[in-house]
Amino acid sequence: MKSLVHLLKFAVGLDSADSQVTDRELQLLLQYSRDAETICEIGCFESRTSVVLAANTAGSVYSIDPFFRGRLGICYTEWVARLNRSRTGARNLVFIRGLSHEVGRTFDLPIDFLFIDADHSYEAMKADWKEWFPKVKRGGYVALHDSKPAVNSPHRLGSMQFYSEDIPKISGVTECDEVDSLVILQRR
Ligand SMILES: C[S@@+](CC[C@H](N)C(=O)[O-])C[C@H]1O[C@@H](n2cnc3c(N)ncnc32)[C@H](O)[C@@H]1O
Q1: Residue to mutate, 76, 93, 119, ligand 1, most ligand atoms under 8 Å from C-beta
Q2: What's the CA gap between 148 and 4, in Å, rounded?
Q3: From atom 4 of ligand 1, which residue's Cα is the shortest distance away?
Q4: What is the helix (H) or strand (E) element at residue 63, kind and residue range?
Q5: Measured from the CA of 49, which atom of ligand 1 is nearest?
Q6: Which segments in the chain show pLDDT lower than 50?
Q7: Residues 6+ apart with CB under 8 A from 44
Q8: CA distances from 70 to 1, 18, 66, 119 (A)
């Protein structure tokens, strides 16, 4: 019911698309993705970040989300995401419905900028990294949301465990920036 009310309010301009990405995080995402030809966002939600990424680049943004349907078979989040995209006229933003590991099996474009912000459990983060990191070009960037405790991400999440325990052991990446819960890594 809450989601339906939000969709209706969004449709008439009384609500905006939701996101946990802070303004400072968004600025960092824009800084590192500006020159990207291919951007992938794992976890679209209401497309609040996706449309801004799309407006900031001459390349293409692929945003992946299963858009889980509720009891009535409707995903209100997807409706907000689609409406948001059409309002902003982002023609270079493509939604891909599916779980990241399923989409990853067939997605074969080399990626300049990868933003992982989907299932934050430790196992899912590991799986997303395994599936998607090899597609990132050398010199390309990976942004990991909810990697550090911050005001917008106060609880200990599996994504934080993955960042603190696994990332230091992975060769071929250098951390180049961070703000709030977000870190930016570069593939060497
Ligand atoms: C925190 S939200 C993403 C927020 C969005 N990136 C933003 O900047 O506003 C997480 C999203 O990940 C999606 N999700 C959950 N599991 C997923 C999976 N296995 N593959 C892709 N997306 C998934 C959820 O449906 C949800 O919309």
Answers
A1: 119
A2: 32
A3: 45
A4: strand 60-65
A5: 8
A6: none
A7: 50, 63, 64, 65, 67, 81, 95
A8: 10, 18, 12, 18
CATH 3.40.1440.10 assigned to domain 2-187? The reply is no
Phi/psi for 150 (5° steps) reads -155, 175
For 93, residues 6+ apart whose C-beta sits below 8 A from its C-beta are: 47, 50, 51, 53, 54, 60, 61, 63, 85
pLDDT of residue 20: 95
- For the beta carbon of residue 52, count every other beta carbon within 10 angstroms: 20
pLDDT at 51: 98
- Residue 57 CB partners (closer than 8 Å, separation 6+): 33, 34, 35, 36, 39, 92
Domain boundaries, the chain: 2-187
CB burial of 152-188 (b: ≥16 within 10 Å; e: otherwise) equals bbeeebbbbbbbeeebeeeeebeeeebbbbbbbbbbe
Confidence (pTM): 0.97
Q: How many Å apart are CA 58 and CA 73, to the nearest integer?
A: 35
